[in-house]
Amino acid sequence: xxRRQLLFTLGGAFVGIPIIVSLIYDAIxxxxxxxxxxxxxxxxxxxxxSSPNLADANSEISLDTTEEPLLRxxxxxxxxxxxxxxFAVAKSMWETYQQKPYxxxxxxxxxxxxxxxxxxxxxxxxxxxxxLLKENVQFYAVLGNHDIIKSNNGMDQINYKLFNMGxxxxxxxxxxxxxxxxxFFALDTNNNAPWEAQxxxxxxxxxxxxxxxxxxxxxxxxxxxxxxxxxxELVAKLAPIFAKHKVPLYLCGHDHGYxxxxxxxGTIYIVNGGGGAPLxxxxxxxxxxxxxxxxxxxxxxxxxxxxxxxxxxxxxxxxDRAIITKA
Length: 327
Ligand SMILES: [Fe+2]
Fold this sequence. Notes:
Blueprint: H1 3-12, H2 22-30, E1 34-36, E2 46-48, E3 71-76, H3 84-99, E4 104-107, H4 121-126, H5 130-134, E5 138-141, H6 155-158, E6 170-174, E7 182-186, H7 195-208, E8 213-217, H8 232-244, E9 249-252, E10 258-261, E11 268-272, E12 288-291, E13 296-302, E14 306-313, E15 318-325
This protein binds fe (ii) ion.
């Protein structure tokens, strides 16, 4: 059995074992807002309601606001499994949308298990998200490791209209008509990606960008306490570019669960891989601000001066919130 197949099979052993960190959830609901501010020059200020042990250095920023955001979007990853858990997350996404509509969804890879075959897109993508697609909510995908196995190295997904990709890596802006409120940079983080060209492109595009907010996403984590863990090579490739351009947020999946990091050289790293594939066990690392492997998705409320992030479970409850502000 190939290693990739073995991992996939092992993943199946975790079906139906939602590793709910209820103690942590209790800590969220009971804790007072607190905050951290790290890495002096380039760090965004950061408020955290889920880690009550963090220093309270930013208490003037409130998570509770009635102000409408400039832009609201959602994010999922590791979702295309066709499982009841994927449908449960999709249902929660739809119920959240009905209360607070979001314009689009970032889909951070492993869009179609197990081999990325586009013939499964109907069952593993169009059906679970049918209500959202009917409302014309757009999905912006990147390629996960599963997406390039039997899909002409991902080209079938790149050419699939509903994934809105256009290429292996791409950028797009949303929000304000002229400048965009946020510019998104979607990466191919697979080993066989055209890394040299992609990194040069990312550096160039971030330099050129006039958007007030710049967010990067890709499938693989730089930092993670899940089964796959972090990736030093990815850190070496991407972290200096993030620091140079003050990218406040990198979103990914691959490890099936939720983990948010403290700011590392100004960037917060969020693993958001609870979209429907079997969950993994997570540990805790020095960079962990909050971890809870459960089936979930995220929403982001973007304001001029802050982004409020929410991780939302299948019951619609928010189990992690944070504020990201600019450096
Ligand atoms: Fe993956």
